[in-house]
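ARCHIVE CARD
CATEGORY: sequence design from structure
SOURCE FIELD: tokenized fold
FIELD CONTENT:
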């Protein structure tokens, strides 16, 4: 599904934020000591912690905030982080309605590209919470499978998004959830977000939504009229066939991603239990931060590079 890194690629990525083994072990020890005092958080593997450390440039205080938020949103949003069985009928229907998959190869600057396209123009086939559920499973699968990357690139193909009924799903509440989760509760660097094949109705909606993003993210949200305009930034061969590349067609790539999740069904189901238990939280309110449903809230503000 994804092409393994070469030794040369891995070394180049590690050199982006060099750290000796002793320094990494020291950071890991600090975080382990902190986690031992957080009874509301689930058990966390050393490998996961090390990847979060790298993603956040070994800033241990920021790592603590992200790990806490990462597990807390799973408690707050059971409609997204519960019922993660990829073999269910509702999951299968969403796979048929939306193509979602990572590209097999990294970009030249070592980023993972995530691709999205509606497979139908039927607005009723799209469910926002199922979209987020699938995206979270795909992202967690990649975080587990990828040795290291330097960030994510999202490409949204809007070819089949041409009606108000479809865009009604992408309301402000839905976009606020995406904003909150990805900015404050995931160890991810979002490098660029491309919207391609934009109809006038889509550009109006996206410009409105873009207003709510921090300035640094506004600059990373790019509108592309055609896929040819992406060729200045990425090798064309890495794209799906529909975009002029050689990675395979989008339906097959999306189905392969689904099959990878089915292979790891037990892992997906285990993810349901990896969440915070705010009743055990020490020194803070025992009520989960419901304010994450909006832009404001007492989640610590995290600015990802």
């Amino acid at each position: 599904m994804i092409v393994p890194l070469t030794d040369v690629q891995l070394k180049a990525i590690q050199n982006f934020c060099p750290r000796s083994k002793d320094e990494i072990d020291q950071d890991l020890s600090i975080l382990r000591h902190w986690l031992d005092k957080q009874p509301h958080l689930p058990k966390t593997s050393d490998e996961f912690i090390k990847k979060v450390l790298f993603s956040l440039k070994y800033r241990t205080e920021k790592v603590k905030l992200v790990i806490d938020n990462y597990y807390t949103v799973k408690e707050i949003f059971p409609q997204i982080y519960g019922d993660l069985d990829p073999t269910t009928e509702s999951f299968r229907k969403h796979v048929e309605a939306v193509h979602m998959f990572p590209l097999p190869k990294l970009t030249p600057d070592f980023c993972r590209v995530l691709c999205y396209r509606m497979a139908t123009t039927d607005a009723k086939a799209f469910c926002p919470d199922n979209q987020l559920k699938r995206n979270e499973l795909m992202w967690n699968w990649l975080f587990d499978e990828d040795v290291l990357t330097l960030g994510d690139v999202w490409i949204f193909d809007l070819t089949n998004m041409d009606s108000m009924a479809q865009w009604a799903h992408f309301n402000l509440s839905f976009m606020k959830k995406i904003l909150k989760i990805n900015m404050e509760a995931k160890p991810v660097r979002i490098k660029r977000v491309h919207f391609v094949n934009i109809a006038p109705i889509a550009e109006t909606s996206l410009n409105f939504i873009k207003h709510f993003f921090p300035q640094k993210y506004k600059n990373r949200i790019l509108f592309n009229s055609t896929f040819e305009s992406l060729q200045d930034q990425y090798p064309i061969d890495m794209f799906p066939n529909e975009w002029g590349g050689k990675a395979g067609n989008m339906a097959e790539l999306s189905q392969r991603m689904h099959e990878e999740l089915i292979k790891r069904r037990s892992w997906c189901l285990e993810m349901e239990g990896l969440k915070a238990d705010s009743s055990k939280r020490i020194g803070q309110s025992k009520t989960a931060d419901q304010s994450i449903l909006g832009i404001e809230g007492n989640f610590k503000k995290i600015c990802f590079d």
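CARD ANNOTATION: The beta strands are 98-102, 112-118, 152-157, 190-196, 221-224. The CA atoms of residues 4 and 146 lie 8 Å apart.
SHELF: design records, drawer C
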